[in-house]
Amino acid sequence: MSDQNSEQEPWYRDGLNFTCTQCGNCCTGAPGVVWVDDAEIKAIADLTGKSTGEIMLMHTRLYAGRRTLTEYANGDCTFFDPEKRGCTIYEARPVQCRTWPFWNSNLKDKASWDSLSPDCPGAGKGAFVSFEEIQKRSEQIDL
Ligand code: SF4
């Protein structure tokens, strides 16, 4: 079946595999954006015990009319702990981080999904993720 029929029968109908290895690649490296809205900023503030104003000032910036998390000069997310190689706000991480790698751009076709593996060693391996769960995650954000 071709990808042209993907609206009816997505190529990942039988589910996919993914388990985060916590390598940290998606939180570091090449510059990018991690969109955050007011509710997500509030959740981060609540988790860290800081004010929403401080979170906005110290960890976000405006880009293309929206708010994104900031990065250090080396590309690390400002919420990434380089020693522990982990996210310091994991429980309150934004939807963009929660739904990775099940973004529309990665699910567009199998080649797009397969191309993730060099940078995201968890994609295509580990726990089975059902079609319904993939849909649930991908519908939360359009990336
Ligand atoms: S790149 Fe993939 S495996 Fe590595 S931390 Fe991110 S989601 Fe996990």
TrEMBL record:
The keyword Methyltransferase applies. GO terms for biological process: methylation. One of its GO terms (molecular function) is methyltransferase activity. It holds the Pfam family CxxCxxCC. Keywords: Cell projection, Cilium, Flagellum, Methyltransferase, Transferase. The keyword Aminoacyl-tRNA synthetase does not apply. This is Flagellin N-methylase.
